[in-house]
Amino acid sequence: MPLLSIQDLRVEYRTSSGRMVVIPDFSLDIEPGESVGLVGESGCGKSTLLMAIMRYLGRNGSIPQGRILFEGRDLVALAEPELRQIRGSRIAIVYQEPATALNPSLTIGRQLMEVPQLHGASGRDARAAVVRVLADVHLPDAASIMRRYPHQISGGQKQRVVLALALLANPSLLLLDEPTTGLDVTVAAAVLDLVNELRRKYGTALVYVSHNLGVIAQVCDRVGVMYAGELVEDAAVDSLFTYPRHPYTRGLIASLPRIGADKRSAPLVPIPGVVPSPAELRQGCSFARRCRDADTGLCRTAAIPLRAATDTHLVRCNRFEHLEPLAVPFDVAMPQATSSEPIMEAHDLTRSFRLGRSHLLANDRLDITAQRGRVLAVVGESGSGKTTFARILTGLDQATGGMLRFKGKEIGRTLVRRRTRAQVAAIQMVFQNPDGTLNPSHRVGRPLGRALRRFGIARGRKAIEARVRELLEMVRLQPSVRHSLPRQLSGGQKQRIAIARAFAGNPELLIADEPVSALDVSVQAAVINLLLGIQADSGTTMVFISHDLVLVRYLADEVVVMYLGRVMESGPVEALFAPPYHPYTEALLSAVPLPEPGSGGRRIRLEGEIPSPLDPPPGCRFAGRCPRKVGAVCDTVPPPAREGAEGHLIFCHIPIEELRLVPAVVERGDAELVNVGAE
Amino acid sequence: MSVTQAPFPIATPAAAAEAAERGAPGLLRRLPSSRVAMVGLSLVLFWVVLALLAPVLPLASPNAQDYAAIGHPGSSAAHLLGVDPLGRDVLSRLIWGARTVLAVAPIAVVTAYIVGCAMGLLAGYYRGWVDVVVSRVSDVILSFPVVVLYVILIANIGPSALNIVVAAVLASAPGIARIVRGLVLSLVNQEFVAAAELRRESDLYIMLVELLPNCRGPLITDFCLRLGYITIAIGTLGFLGLGLPPPTPDWGGMIKQGTAMLTVYPHMSLYPAFAIVSLVLGFNLLADGLTELSMSD
Amino acid sequence: MLSYLTRRLLEVALTLLLASFVVFMVTEFSPGNVARRTLGPFATQEQVDILYNRLHLNDPLLVRYARWLGVLTGLQADPLQDPALGLNFTDPRGARYFGNFGYSTLYKAPVNDVLWDRLANTALLAGLAFAVIVPLSLLLGVIAGMRAGSGTDRIVSSLSIVMTSVPEFALGVMLVAVFVVLLHWLPGTSPLEREGGWPIAAQLVLPVATLAIYDAGYVARIVRSSMAEVMTRPYVRTAVLKGLPRRTVIVRHALRNAMIAPFTVILLQINWLIGGVVVTELVFGYPGFGRMLLDAALFGDISLIEAATLIALLVATTTQLASDIGYRLLDPQSRR
Hints:
The structure holds 3 protein chains of 3 kinds.
Chain A: E1 4-15, E2 18-30, E3 35-39, H1 46-53, E4 61-70, E5 73-74, H2 80-86, E6 91-95, H3 98-101, H4 108-118, H5 123-136, H6 142-147, H7 155-167, E7 173-177, H8 185-202, E8 205-210, H9 213-219, E9 222-227, E10 230-236, H10 237-242, H11 247-254, H12 298-301, E11 307-310, E12 313-315, E13 342-355, E14 358-371, E15 375-379, H13 386-394, E16 401-406, E17 409-410, H14 421-426, E18 427-430, H15 445-454, H16 461-474, H17 491-503, E19 509-513, H18 521-538, E20 541-546, H19 549-555, E21 558-563, E22 566-572, H20 573-576, H21 583-591, H22 632-636, E23 641-643, E24 649-651, H23 656-660
Parallel strand pairs in A: 3-8, 3-9, 6-7, 7-8, 15-20, 15-21, 18-19, 19-20
Antiparallel strand pairs in A: 1-2, 1-4, 4-5, 9-10, 10-12, 11-12, 13-14, 13-16, 16-17, 21-22, 22-24, 23-24
Helix pairs in contact in A: 4-5, 5-7, 7-8, 15-16, 17-18
Chain B: H1 13-21, H2 23-27, H3 35-53, H4 67-70, H5 90-126, H6 128-142, H7 146-157, H8 161-187, H9 191-197, H10 203-211, H11 216-239, H12 251-259, H13 267-295
Helix pairs in contact in B: 3-5, 3-13, 5-6, 5-8, 5-11, 6-8, 7-8, 8-11, 11-12, 11-13, 12-13
Chain C: H1 2-28, H2 31-39, H3 45-54, H4 61-73, E1 103-104, E2 109-110, H5 111-146, H6 151-163, H7 168-182, H8 200-231, H9 234-241, H10 246-284, H11 289-299, H12 302-330
Antiparallel strand pairs in C: 1-2
């Protein structure tokens, strides 16, 4: 008997604009101890499904049809007191944003002890249980953690506490909703390892919801792909990643950059369009509108059943047997910019802030050069100072030391209002957050028109209007979009507007600060393609800030890796992604969850979390967490620059010869396309 | 580069229309969908219409004294709601009194908003010493109990419509400034502000065009609430004998005059009391409905 | 915490100093007025001019403020008490002591003789009102906010919005009309004397109700929205999904967080009550601080206005300070 059996489940929400069917008809069985991943873009009903299992849908949510059998009992029909017996003790849940999941005004200890006490444990037994579980989630100093309030511990620690909370009652089913989203790469990798370890130890069945295929591949036995509230593919994890059958799954995989691939060898293939709103009427296949392979007949009219492709592989597609191998819809050869004329040079660039008696060195003696027409990636986790660097470059902030030259002119201490009009127009920026980048009160055409006027690109209403249209066409939006308000646009569309705005003044240097990190993968691919296309066409230099190494590998020509305000390693992209590595780069690389099951391989994991950037020690910034630390010298002496190849610098005390001996973290993939139809 | 992808379709018309309905700009348009707000609006409009029609309604002059009616001041054919202790028609004074309050209160609130928004924008956008000065001034004024502030101000500068407006602005602007400052602080680090700075927009443009319009959601609600507060304040001043100089009809003053006869003829005080309660309730319900609407999506 | 406390204390002191200057500026801005008001309407212009000169009222405002501050703190003798002026303003405490608020021209007595009894009466009234407001508004707000959108919520919310739409002067009149004129249950005036035949307790009912109802409605609305907001927080969801019973979820996880925001508001009601008593005391003829302030303002009793306003400010800023400290104790996140 399956542990959990969801049968014909339908979930609806009442809203002011009518009924929304978030999940129309969903069935799924989970065996005891099994680990099932649910993957799909945002808005596909993944979280709603978890909340339906917990029977926590809020006042306006309801389950008008279907059963959720858990250990033989139908959760849908249970009364509140019986439900309480199951919640927390038999089924537990961990969701994203651990920061908000804990009560801010109770100590961690009280919140944890509550669970065993609820099940009748005495105070002493409860404490013992909590200490045991805290050790299991690698929070050894239980007494100190338990005394603290949630705001006094770090994000990674909070997520561990929430995991401990879920595991305390030893549930037979654990639901995880994007538990690593929002955590730094290295911290997320450690949490993921922990989930795998705990699963083995506790034998708990998992439902793991994520938009990240790589994460799913690392944690799950089986994957369910959800689209618009439906299960469109259900397969064993190997089967799914080696032979994805549903066009949506194939699209998701093709829109990801493959590790080791770059823009010249394997372009990203986005999925056009967006997930339909639950308010829309359904007819036929819900994916037909975005599907390259849909026909006009069956796909658009009849409901599509889930069919078995193999014993362990179910797919909801009429035409899965007939699908062509995934082709690249356009032949791109991204031109290789050959020039090596520096357009921007930072030397010893420093930005320090004073916080009371402490100093915060957000940028510490940076040496960074961008070559005209090329893409320079700046990589780092939170607190690395990459955004501060971007702000100094644009003149939103100013340096406190060192120099920063743009086209030979010093601009490091010139705030934007003191720069010339030409200088301002020449350095523009695309921001990270699509929801904050556009003024919610203004029609989206307005910032474009204002930029054209302020930079003197176009004069007169007619000319401006015409140029705005051109800009919108350049970012592949319909000209009528300019009359929309930002909230009417999707995240991807907003980022397109932001790109158009940045290019309005014909910039020579474009800074893109994590421009796609908030977007779904399929949309990411489209925005990246667009950005790279415009950049290459216009010959603009791009500084691309990111924490996503795979993406950086894909699009960058040169890379700078930063940690706590210092440059750790810099050089051409190929050199950086092969040994010798800086130990930090190596850790970052091995923290990337790859969408290739079993690719775990050799890993190094970092202990702890990014330390406070206040009053850093005089030696190497990374010394505190470095798994290859040499000795006291790392703490006291700034590391020397070691040259790996031409232009490849590693700031480390370990001699370069020794660093060369480290095996590659990732093999350079051949970037072959998904081998659909190979069977 | 050749990209074969079709341009993105913008969201479907239905979805777009629905989205446009949301948020502050659609707030006033969506008013009819909130029953609470509609009840509030009708109460306010009731008084607005009466006040506008005052000159054409078949009313006795608000200041004409009917000495014959003083003996029997209750409701009669000639005086629907009776007369006050001086023999003046209560109904007429109520309606003419509505004109006073509905002129003075909005003028005071609008003026307070201009001052308060300016203070809040400057403090929130420039921060530093501007913020220190504005916040300190606000703190000092807000540390006065409101009624006490009104009393000592009006007692010293004398009761008149203008002075009531001045006092109301002085008492309200710091509160508005505080709200605007808070909103601006939450907005000023948003990326669209940085984007405007990267176009070299002037500070004035950023404050008025980029920041202020995004404050309107909470401010619309506060505006309605404040209309209620100022209505109460005007009534209170009238009641304390610091309102508009007689014989101007003024609800607070009418209640005050009626209290002398309260044990015998309570209607003289009760009618204006109900009038002021209904108007304040109207403003409060309107504010409540607007809050509800802005939270519902 | 200690450094925070000292910083806040200094801020409060600065606010008080600035506010006292505002008070002084408003009441004594025109010096001619000061002399005239001190002597009353029947003095001749000649007498007014003599006093004007003796008091050096042509000095700049700041100088006069410094002198006034000197009298208040006991550094300087009150010039009005100088027998040479012939005003016959005498204070048994002497002409120089800390807290010398001067001489009330309205009551023809030192301010300190007039002030404190009335303040005690008002403290009784406001204290009782506060004791009604807090439990009433918490009860209403929590009940409504616990299940936002339910029938109970709608009823309680409507009730509290009506409550807060009735200003004190209107409410007082209405209560008198019902409980005094119609039902004869309670007295319409509250002189706090036994002679009227009504016990003191009965005399207090209507003034307390008048003060409390408007304010309780206001606070209840704030408690409700805070409670409703907290109930939607993820940590409440965590608590529910732990399997905790609803009661525990509300009492342990929701209530405390829901009280953090209203706490400040509740303490600030003390500030509001000071204003409220001015109106309520007038309605019921209650011999308190508020009515005294109003009478002083209407009469032009400069010393008494200044003294009363300063006391009101002192109470207000102290409450502000208390609410800040309480907030830090209540909200672990503000402590760091």
